[in-house]
Amino acid sequence: MDKPIHILLAEDQAIIRQGLRYIIDAQPDMRVVGEAEDGEAAIQAALQTGPNLILMDIRMPGRNGIEATRAILAARPETKVVLLTTFDIREYVYDGIRAGAVGYILKDAPTQELLEGIRSAHRGAVIYRSAVSGQALAQAMRDGTDYAPPEDGQTSPLLEPITERELEVLQHMAYGRQNAEIASLLSVSESTVKTHVHRILQKFGVEDRTQAVVIALRRRIVR
Known about the structure:
The chain is of the alpha/beta class and 223 residues long. Helix content is 50%, strand content 13%. It is globular and about 50 Å long. Mean pLDDT is 82; it is low at 141-156.
């Protein structure tokens, strides 16, 4: 079996952290490696434990989850952050995208949806599962000028220019679509899409599609 996904829980309510730990540690492919009760503690725990993925609450005492996400990804851009919250608010989703989070899942989501969201985010998908996520993603693509200038080294110039077809594929990737669906929408074979995705990752100098999508959003490559 592959190494388990190392997960950090950032949540100010102890009872919720305990419930999440119980669910996650029961999975053979996941393991909780740390907990934090506020944003500042989440930053320190992320630096100490080096998790693959962080489940990050948004509303926490002191430094909130969006601020903590931005600080963590500046230091550890390879970490995946999934925002886990009670609030289905478009501004939160939008701010999460800008901060570099790869997912947004509501706390009342079914357990299996949460677990599959973790697995998908770890594999490189963008997981925004809320009623307002489509609006927020569309806004982020239209309103690219709101993105802050890069400070974390993730947005260096492309190694090669991106083609028009690769841009189409990248836009679909930004909506969380997988290769088979993209192939159907573009009327090409799945192997062709895989080739385009591989070339996109090469040109961005990244290892997975999530990093490529976040960079594209922040650099206004997709709209």
